[in-house]
Amino acid sequence: MKKAFLMMVLFLACAGLFAADGIDFDVNEVGNLGVPSELTDQFSYVYGYILLQSVMKAYPGLNLEYWAKGLYDSASGQSVFTDVQMQQILSDYQMKQVEVNAAAQKKAAADNLEQANSFLAANRSNPKVKETASGLQYEVVREGSGAVPEAGSNVRIDYQCILLDGTVIDSSYARKVPNDLYMTKMIKGLSEGIQLMKVGSKYRFWIPPALGYGENSTNVEPNSLLVFEVELLAINS
Question: Are residues 37 and 127 in the same domain?
Answer without folding.
Answer: no
